[in-house]
Amino acid sequence: xxxxxxxxxxxxxxxxxxxxxxxxxxxxxxxxxxxxxxxxxxxxxxxxxxxxxxxxxxxxxxxxxxxxxxxxxxxxxxxxxxxxxxxxxxxxxxxxxxxxxxxxxxxxxxxxxxxxxxxxxxxxxxxxxxxxxxxxxxxxxxxxxxxxxxxxxxxxxxxxxxxxxxxxxxxxxxxxxxxxxxxxxxxxxxxxxxxxxxxxxxxxxxxxxxxxxxxxxxxxxxxxxxxxxxxxxxxxxxxxxxxxxxxxxxxxxxxxxxxxxxxxxxxxxxxxxxxxxxxxxxxxxxxxxxxxxxxxxxxxxxxxxxxxxxxxxxxxxxxxxxxxxxxxxxxxxxxxxxxxxxxxxxxxxxxxxxxxxxxxxxxxxxxxxxxxxxxxxxxxxxxxxxxxxxxxxxxxxxxxxxxxxxxxxxxxxxxxxxxxxxxxxxxxxxxxxxxxxxxxxxxxxxxxxxxxxxxxxxxxxxxxxxx
Amino acid sequence: xxxxxxxxxxxxxxxxxxxxxxxxxxxxxxxxxxxxxxxxxxxxxxxxxxxxxxxxxxxxxxxxxxxxxxxxxxxxxxxxxxxxxxxxxxxxxxxxxxxxxxxxxxxxxxxxxxxxxxxxxxxxxxxxxxxxxxxxxxxxxxxxxxxxxxxxxxxxxxxxxxxxxxxxxxxxxxxxxxxxxxxxxxxxxxxxxxxxxxxxxxxxxxxxxxxxxxxxxxxxxxxxxxxxxxxxxxxxxxxxxxxxxxxxxxxxxxxxxxxxxxxxxxxxxxxxxxxxxxxxxxxxxxxxxxxxxxxxxxxxxxxxxxxxxxxxxxxxxxxxxxxxx
Amino acid sequence: xxxxxxxxxxxxxxxxxxxxxxxxxxxxxxxxxxxxxxxxxxxxxxxxxxxxxxxxxxxxxxxxxxxxxxxxxxxxxxxxxxxxxxxxxxxxxxxxxxxxxxxxxxxxxxxxxxxxxxxxxxxxxxxxxxxxxxxxxxxxxxxxxxxxxxxxxxxxxxxxxxxxxxxxxxxxxxxxxxxxxxxxxxxxxxxxxxxxxxxxxxxxxxxxxxxxxxxxxxxxxxxxxxxxxxxxxxxxxxxxxxxxxxxxxxxxxxxxxxxxxxxxxxxxxxxxxxxxxxxxxxxxxxxxxxxxxxxxxxxxxxxxxxxxxxxxxxxxxxxxxxxxxxxxxxxxxxxxxxxxxxxxxxxxxxxxxxxxxxxxxxxxxxxxxxxxxxxxxxxxxxxxxxxxxxxxxxxxxxxxxxxxxxxxxxxxxxxxxxxxxxxxxxxxxxxxxxxxxxxxxxxxxxxxxxxxxxxxxxxxxxxxxxxxxxxxxxxxxxxxxxxxxxxxxxxxxxxxxxxxxxxxxxxxxxxxxxxxxxxxxxxxxxxxxxxxxxxxxxxxxxxxxxxxxxxxxxxxxxxxxxxxxxxxxxxxxxxxxxxxxxxxxxxxxxxxxxxxxxxxxxxxxxxxxxxxxxxxxxxxxxxxxxxxxxxxxxxxxxxxxxxxxxxxxxxxxxxxxxxxxxxxxxxxxxxxxxxxxxxxxxxxxxxxxxxxxxxxxxxxxxxxxxxxxxxxxxxxxxx
Lengths: 467, 325, 719
Prior knowledge:
The structure holds three protein chains of three kinds.
Chain A: E1 2-4, H1 7-28, H2 30-41, H3 43-61, E2 65-70, E3 78-85, H4 86-90, H5 92-96, E4 114-117, E5 123-126, H6 140-178, H7 182-190, H8 198-219, H9 234-270, H10 272-287, H11 290-307, H12 315-350, H13 353-360, H14 365-401, H15 413-424, H16 432-459, H17 461-466
Antiparallel strand pairs in A: 1-2, 2-3, 4-5
Chain B: H1 2-30, H2 33-41, H3 48-57, H4 74-77, H5 80-86, H6 102-137, H7 142-156, H8 159-173, H9 189-219, H10 222-229, H11 234-257, H12 266-272, H13 277-287, H14 290-318
Chain C: H1 2-20, E1 38-43, H2 58-67, E2 72-74, E3 83-85, E4 95-97, E5 103-104, E6 115-121, H3 171-182, H4 191-197, H5 201-209, H6 216-225, E7 231-235, E8 238-244, H7 250-253, H8 264-271, E9 292-298, E10 302-307, E11 314-315, H9 324-327, E12 336-337, E13 342-347, H10 351-359, E14 365-367, H11 373-376, E15 377-379, E16 385-387, H12 389-392, E17 397-402, E18 405-411, H13 423-435, H14 438-445, E19 450-452, E20 476-479, E21 482-485, H15 488-497, E22 513-519, H16 525-537, E23 542-548, H17 550-559, E24 564-570, H18 577-580, H19 589-592, H20 603-613, H21 619-635, E25 638-650, E26 654-655, E27 671-672, H22 674-684, H23 690-718
Parallel strand pairs in C: 1-13, 22-23
Antiparallel strand pairs in C: 2-3, 4-5, 4-6, 6-8, 7-8, 9-10, 10-13, 11-12, 14-25, 15-16, 17-25, 18-24, 18-25, 19-25, 20-21, 26-27
Helix pairs in contact in C: 1-23, 6-8, 13-15, 20-21
């Protein structure tokens, strides 16, 4: 295979590098480590962190792209046109098992009647069997429930085994580090009032593993969340949408962050004409309805792409660039809020005694900003980051309604919800696309929201005082 | 104070020029006058001459921003940009590319938008604040957690589905209200019930969450602790201190959106068939009617700036410490 | 919580107040209209122009065709489509002349004919709708032709003028409208076409160009003064149009609203200053002679048509097709029309509410969206559509008809890979044509409402052939009495012959990549694009979808940079010329800005087209059309796509809703039974009030424990 590096992939890697670097840096500095430790000590913080990590790992797996080699005797190696990711490879079964059109979750027959040729000639209209879903069953009506139950049990068992293996590994590692027997560690974890809520962490982890294994076991033979209009597996689409959602939530902030921090602090710190200019900039941008700005930007991108069609040979690249562009433009429309907050805070900080003292001592502006101002506004940045995340994930869904969201060929919850609005009007109702998108999005947004609350509590010095 | 307002209004002019320029650039990078002409002329049998004639007729035959052929100031004034935006500053919107008068249309369509937006704002505010106080009362209990889960669930649901669901349940299943439509004058009220209910319910998730955050921040303040230490009951603390002090951010948050209520709601207006400004804008974007888009963006910017000024004024009214210089 | 109760009580009180009236709570119409003879329908796109010289879209025709009366119309019931007189006294028969002006017989050879004359005689006694433009005082002076600012105080709509008048229709009005078609400031879409055909039209258009931009009143003056050599008013009731050469399709144009009469008084009236800023324009307030007139024009809410009191009267057709007598469509034969007093069209942008309101009886008829299809229609074992029991229970009936529309997937013939005259490209196109399974497309995306196309000409248009003789044997074979798509293996063989074994392009060693140009707009697009990719992948071709906006798409079409795209064509008139010209070389999109989007050019085809165009429909013409079809099927510039079928549903109180795809002025034939409608609406929409009480009870149930919890918590924290 040959690796393919998409723009968003590169940014994800960059984000990962930054996150790890920041983590290592923070671990060495007590004042940075303390709030994070507070986050980890909260049961909700721990649980949501694990859920978010689950989502993140899917997104990262889905961001390693490559082209597969095509088997051809002799000659130079030839690569398939399709760009796949590690995640696609892992789910290749799901990806390839396509039906003709709608089928309900766990169905063995299509959801709509089709003309079927009768053996004796002639045509009737009936619900045909699915090509893949439940195809292994000889008599679906009788065997299906039993088969599903067995698979659920097997899946749970596998999940439990996997969980035990992970717990074992953790115990062993932790025990070795502290040089104590795993029994002691285990007892320590289980005792009430531990510093880090190990029981919660392990329970959530166990729940996720079991759910994952059950889903995996079932998805091998069924479409556990049904299929869509052209017969693609909805479960697969939902999982693929995870990357899109996370990217929009994180890359947007990454893109807007430098501008917001730089301009916000500059405006508050230097005041005068700098402040006027920056205020003018963000008031003007804010005055334009965001939808219009986004629509225009997306259309501009399309114009650019149709004028430079050769550079975007594959569908994935086009969709990827559009996603990136969407992140950028969402960043442009959303940086103003953070910028204003930072400006206000730096205005206040500038008047603080220690800043005035340093100024009097002749400390340079740059040193002053990096030493005194920046660290003192960091908590605002982090809180905004986390709070914005879920809003952005939701915004993607709304934008798709106005057709200015991600590329229509890209898997995203917004696109799924948008097509579901037509499916809901069907009778009988096709509810599973919407339900699947809603479920996955809800869990992510809920986790992000709860996590945001914990982070805010941990970082905001004012709130901390009373807890 | 008056001097302050006048100065702010003067500040608005460069902002509006900037907004206009950005709108103009964004629109014309995407839609050339040729595209607009073709859009208006229809699909069948359109010739190059017809396109040219349309452009000349509607004033799109000139250069966009800079007229190299002009003399002196005419280089900048004899352009599409100048001709089309200068009149906006005296609120002369001119006629749309379709030939209808925009100012007239806006004055007609503003009322339906307001008829929905105002009740949604008031009922939503009352409900969200009550609910948020209730949650804050039970903060850090399971009631709090369950409410937050509920709120997040409510805000994860796309507003589209509140609309479709509302139409289905109240209109189709129970036959209580018309599914969609509008009427002029007082007859409109029965068409407003459903959009208002849907609007309020759709806003609960984000609204209540926001007020909850606000109250939680307020509750962490010293004076609340003092009040509690004095032995005040929790209810008195919440209503007497927390709510009253949180009124400033609540009020300013509301004042900012007040002028924007004119702009209407984009999605629900087209679903309920309400002839407001929201559906006007969406239609204009999809029909590439630049004259309308530009007017609406301009109007939106004016209202936004108005909102900012109102906020500042309302600060001085609720908080005597703040003074405008 | 208390607020919630208050809101709930408020809502309940409000409902109780409505309950006093006897109309259903969910009725979107005022209760006074319950029994009125009113037709209710909806529209989706706001009409852009209601000026007959400008309007060319179906969104506008549903109104315009009821208001304006061109000389001819299509017979309501007869098939194939037949022209009958409307404001004309009879269908004009062209007379031919040679270059020297000598009359020629009807069967004169084409190259002899230099001019053809159409003598149109109109019915006397036709009068315009009441309109202020015609209002005169006792001395016969026009009341409103010199309006001042003061006169316009309190005028918001054209209906606000106190006095109205009328006038008899004369031949001059037709002449005036033809001159308007040439006026450059009106941007009539057929100016270019008529320039070629009507004598003197081009000269007039150029002359009028000099006046352009001088102001609305000057425009009207210039139009009234202008002369056109090709149109001559003979007397009050007849005029003659002279065309260059022969143009047998011209009668069809006379049935379109472009040629509807326009009184100069109206044009002058609307041109006066002060009216435009009140949105009182000829483009928005039509003045016609037809059975209806527009009385409320609020395109963002509703359009209301009312019976024209001056209508000259028309009778329901007596002739019908075999079977029409039994079906009841001829029950009103010979009765005076129109039957309906008023028609209200409400704006409905979204499908879901429109469909639900139809089911509740608030719209009299409705199309079926793809997604509501299963709810309304089932396909029975023979493949015939039948209504679901739930729908039949309500007495709704279904009418189907194949539309004169073709949707096709075109190849850009200018492209080096898929286009051109090379054998290799031709084989590739045929292979793709086989692989893209339009039967599946029709079944998934239109619920089977369509017939797969075998060529450019849809059924119901001359030149279309049923059965084995009509199949495209490059893509289909005739088996067991039906057309069966050729197998995929055959398509793969064609790919090999074309030099792309397994879809691999030998030059690059990679899969052949083909670009698909697409206007992505709706939520349904993703599914369709995925489906298309699957179709091409069957041959190993990678379809690269270049989704863009409509403008960019059109631009690509104009510059010819695309490869594969989908488009459709809706007939102007029921003649094969109107479809085959889509493949006529001199009509190419890139070179000639025509409608031949594939830029297909085949000399033999073009030669036959020139011949076919002027022939009378008959076996000879059929033979020529057959040869032309064979040529394009072999060249496969399109993968022929499908002809959509229109399904429409009608409530039982709506009569005479016969689908006629060419005639747009069918409102006048329709009849309703308002009493039955009022009764059924009432029955179907009884408000269900228990949820309100249940809600009230639930709120109470929630508030009490909440209050209790509050009290308890307060006590516990107080400790």
